[in-house]
Specification:
The structure is a homotetramer of 144-residue chains. Chain A is built from three helices and five strands, in the order E-H-H-E-E-E-E-H. With 144 residues, the first copy, chain A, is an alpha+beta fold. Chain A has one domain (17-140): Hotdog Thioesterase (Thiol Ester Dehydrase, Chain A, Roll), CATH 3.10.129.10. Chain A has a five-stranded antiparallel beta sheet, with helices on one face. Chains in contact: A-B, A-C, A-D, B-C, B-D, C-D. At the B-C interface, helix 1 and strand 2 of B face helix 1 and strand 2 of C.
Chain lengths: 144, 144, 144, 144
């Protein structure tokens, strides 16, 4: 369509596409800053489905992944009806926690609109930290 | 402040005030239509607190109040930083269900911006309909 | 897959599929009642795209469609990670307003989870009611 | 009421109280992680009102404050109907940008539930960075 280089996917990155709705925008005319965290959640859900799991199943196996920290850098605004391409991958696998990293691009995957991360603990149903089990590491973590 | 007649409160109506945030507006510059249902929820929570209860306690006593139907009529838009005055009362007490009715006014309680209702069933924790117990009727329902 | 009859699409109905996210659920474990109105918006956006337009273009042509009334009947709860099938169609075309009707089904299109409607005015940029222009009626309204 | 030391307010910190609604919780039973950014917005709006301004007026004077980065650290979950005490202050005043820092406490101001920040640019209506004008610095920034 044009000769602009598309941004390459990073290793292990899963793509999720998201259409900006009216309800996600604010009176400045752009995607509201808290909505990026909802989109991050949808992107890591797509990541989990791509790994052959669902977060629901992860919970049913007794592993919960509460968010310990979330960060977003806003580079260029998104607007109503924009189609966003969102990359999600695991970047810092540790014993009992890990990080999802996100990149939000425009429809052409050329312009980086935002990037962010969420750090998750692995806990049991009562919130006690647990070491990530092998089945979880194999599905979620990049090969060593 | 001025000689405009303020709207009178209706019998049993509890007032809740709400400041419109940026995140509640949309790119048309007004309060997004789904946000009214969030405000209705905050208004019926204020109603419940005014009756000496909290919805949390109602649930702890085994009564759940899932919404069966919700309706909102939008008369005049609300904008960022507007202070809204929201009236809430019980309008249709029945054996195992009832209705909350809402009126949203501007800060002066002169202009009616929206009105709506939510119909609630009384159920147990598993969602089975139950007759509203006496302590609940005394707190929530208007005197016969 | 099974012998249950799928629900048939109604005339002019456009289907939109929606995955329930964590952020759309509440502490009762189900899709929060205000989120249905966000899903309705996404469904009418899908309807508009299926008609070869986008709501952004409609606005750029000078037609705005503010919501006058919205209603939802909640029949059976939806839960995290459920895939919902949402039907949307125009049901009451009038001179300067019309109604979108919605049906939300489970993934198999067998169980009706919710149904609702939103009534829209046709206005200019300043909110003044206008008669729906021909290009709009041809795209949105069912044939007479 | 008890002998627990309340946390002291920091210099220039403005307090905002927020009741957690049903719609802000998720199916893990806690305040959803994106909702903290909505609460941050309400807290900086309370800060602005305490400084004798409103963000609406700031925009009307031609200064816009888009978010460049947002961060939240989640220490302990908040639940439905909890009353949160939120402290907000300006921490990094610069020429054309500044940072709001937030602390979210429980009702007693004893337990720190979350902390975060949002970095804002000062721009004109078209998004071009501008030096923060004197009236803005006097109202928002701590004395040197």
């Amino acid at each position: 369509m044009n000769n602009t280089l598309r941004t390459e996917a990073l290793e292990g990155e899963v793509l999720y596409s998201h259409r900006v709705s009216y309800g996600e925008t604010d009176c400045m005319g752009v995607l509201y800053y808290a909505e990026y965290l909802h989109i991050f959640e949808r992107a890591r859900n797509a990541f989990t489905h791509a790994r052959g799991l669902s977060y629901k199943e992860v919970e049913e196996r007794g592993i919960y992944l509460p968010v310990r920290e979330a960060l977003c850098r806003y580079r260029s605004p998104a607007r109503y009806d924009d189609l966003l391409m969102v990359g999600c991958r695991v970047t810092r696998p540790r014993r009992a926690s890990f990080t999802f990293s996100y990149r939000i691009f425009d429809e052409e995957c050329v312009l980086l609109l935002a990037e962010g991360m969420s750090e998750h603990a692995c806990t049991d149903a009562r919130g006690k930290p647990v070491v990530a089990p092998d089945w979880f590491r194999r599905a979620f973590f990049p090969p060593a």
